[in-house]
């Protein structure tokens, strides 16, 4: 059987999605179903005194749920600080206060309009700066949610005596996921059993949330994924809230309830990428050899803790960039503000700190009058080096190869050497960024998760994968089938992928952290291999063909299924207390080269070329893999050039796709995507590593570097809108330019 | 979600106009702006009157005098690719092509594009602003980076249309009909500033409908273009733009009309810049002088000072392009 790993086979979910027969949650109905809606806070902070129902409105057939109806009013994530429905206080605009359901969507809107929260406003904390000042305390006395410190060698003291010390400050704004399908859930009860089906990344996260609120056991909850239109992390933790709301309405009304957000509501209420401020001071030799790195990283966590500690952790762990430093000090903290909780978003904290370090490396290059690429090449991590946490990089370190391939393919040196090309009223420039991304959960995460996958042999030569890793558009279904087919030695068409439902699939851990292919894919492979061996042994034992042996095993329940648990690589050591050791089993590496053309009259920036080389270990499906890289890069380009979430008094002013500007196909540059394969010995399919988040890390700093090359304008705050370039040009003209 | 309304699809213009004379009636052409406004609760509709059966409102055709008659229901896509428009009125074809996205241009009409409601985030959001009958313009002391630098008073919206500046620059006339009859309104007089009427963007009385637009023949020696600056390459409104129609004879500018988009509550003509060009050769020097004149009197708010320079840049760039004879304009 010719292997399918490494082949760009047609994606399995393609025909249903292209033909419109795929069923998303809003396509689903159940008999007697009601529609749900959410009453939200109009203010960022206040005492919630009650919810008034207009007595003149006809409330018959309308179900209203408030905090009083919630058995255990907690959204269970890391802390237990977030209520399912606000009780006593509201802490951000759009915080859910009450829920309404009825049969008729139009009447539902009216009912919502006749429900009024009584709120006494309180002073709110809306920015990182206000949170740090702590004149108003909303979380402890200092508004700090979480702190980490990473120290290597002499830490900050390493700066003393360095020949060249450079300091800079870098900022990023919020980013909205703009998954194509908004959040939505359909919920119902069968006796005491809770059922939800909807748009989600992590079925077992939703299950955990439901168990906590309703006091149910594992088998009392059934969470099933509907076809899901994108997630990017936005459907990691938030779907639990939507599921709980739908279930509360279903419980009180005794009817199935569907709760689907509109786009505006989704942008106003759900998670965003954490805004950040990062201050970096580095010391290096005059020849550019990096010596000491010190950073203070501050993330805006929003009103509740949710996943902020782990996002911050990943941000801190990637803060040094893919470079060698003798001494490192990273102080990272997350602060609370009265804004919707910020949460998981492709890259999970790493894009913010890598934006900062890459801009900083360009600053060092400027200070030393070195080419930014030469400076990077001198300091890129290699096999045998250690990271900030003291992790020895033993294998699969493709940083250098990525830099070589991307800069060679793009002709970076010629373009850079030619200087900014000014033609008429436009200027072209080119910039480079190097980046890394730890694949899988941080530190001991995978050890605690114990991800599991089952593979079944079915009659007729068929097999089935059962996993909680969901396909949300990235191609999991296809890639897992490829891995299993090769391991089983059967055609891909013989392998099925069970719909992820907590009653059917084991807990493989969440669909996050670039872990799906590398971690869960390796469990799929291990289970499938074991079944192939069983078939082989059975064939040998009975002197029959493999096909006959397969049928016999498929008919024997005890032998038809292999359920495997993830085995973390031996020898990995991580200490949560000191933040030292092996932060990730392995890293993905990358290098981006961006070319931009800036209109010197209007400061419009057009990305005219983009070359990206990423070390993915092994591309199971080269086209899907390149698709991840190009899509992720375009998302990074949007973050860099157009996406700006504007708020006033904690309220989003541009919650529509007409004014929250994500790039279109016309804004996408011509991509040259180079898949570098430095296999990881424990990766499936011959060495695959994670790729989902990696491409989010390099785009923004590469573009800022290119803009700087073209215009000499130094921009250290995202996004880079035309008006920001204009402002910087004014500052530069008046001599008050950035140092 | 859409609020409820009754829906009518009259067969004749007369019937449509009668229905539109009722209070709370709104015309439905492409619906690309109407549905968004209804969904966002910008206004309510008691009745939505579809114009889709009114064939007489469609089509683009040359008139006897050599001008152009554009039915109000002509789509932006039709306008952008019509050979007569492309060759004789590039500014209008480019304006239509610069609007929205391909899907929206296939659906959206020129009448709707000219009469669309502003995109101000306070007006579209849950703020009872002055334009919606409240007392405040929230943009005045709020987030105003995309608001007006000209013509704001008590309200600082910008006019969102890309075709209206072109039509004003071309000296077009709107034919406006109601149940009581019809009248002609020069495009330049169709739009009103907030100082005159803070609740409306046009002089249309209740029940009045733009049924067609008449464009005079292009003046001899005319060159024209529309230049729009925006954050992304498609489906985005103008940060600033200019519709420029300049006639040149014997190397001198005989007539110039420059109309800005994205910077004022109406398509904003800049007569000072037009005068600065008159009688001069069209070249880099006169372009620079005109560009400076174009921003005279600008009154930026706290967050949109950049638009002053943006207008200067975009006007200078547009005139420089028009001055280059090789440019197909």
Characterization of this structure:
The complex is a heterodimer of chains A (about 750) and B (about 325). With about 750 residues, chain A is α+β, with helices and mostly antiparallel strands. Helix content of chain A is about 30%, strand content about 25%. Chain A is built from 20 helices and 28 strands. In chain A, strands 3-5-1-12-9-10-11 form a seven-stranded mixed sheet, with helices on both faces. In chain A, strands 7-15-14-13-8 form a five-stranded mixed sheet. The model of chain A has no long low-confidence stretch (mean pLDDT about 95). In chain B, strand 6 and strand 7 (about 180-185) form a beta hairpin. Chain B has three domains: about 1-50, Uridine Diphospho-n-acetylenolpyruvylglucosamine Reductase, domain 2; about 60-115 and about 155-215, Uridine Diphospho-n-acetylenolpyruvylglucosamine Reductase, domain 3, CATH 3.30.465; about 220-320, CO dehydrogenase flavoprotein, C-terminal domain (Enolase-like, domain 1), CATH 3.30.390. In chain B, helix 11 packs antiparallel against helix 12. In chain B, the strands form three sheets. In chain B, strands 4-5-8-6-7 form a five-stranded antiparallel sheet. Chain B has a four-stranded antiparallel sheet with strand order 9-10-11-12, sandwiched between helices. Chain B has about 325 residues and is α+β, with helices and mostly antiparallel strands. Classes of the chains: A alpha+beta (about 750), B alpha+beta (about 325). The interface between A and B is large, with 38 and 37 residues.
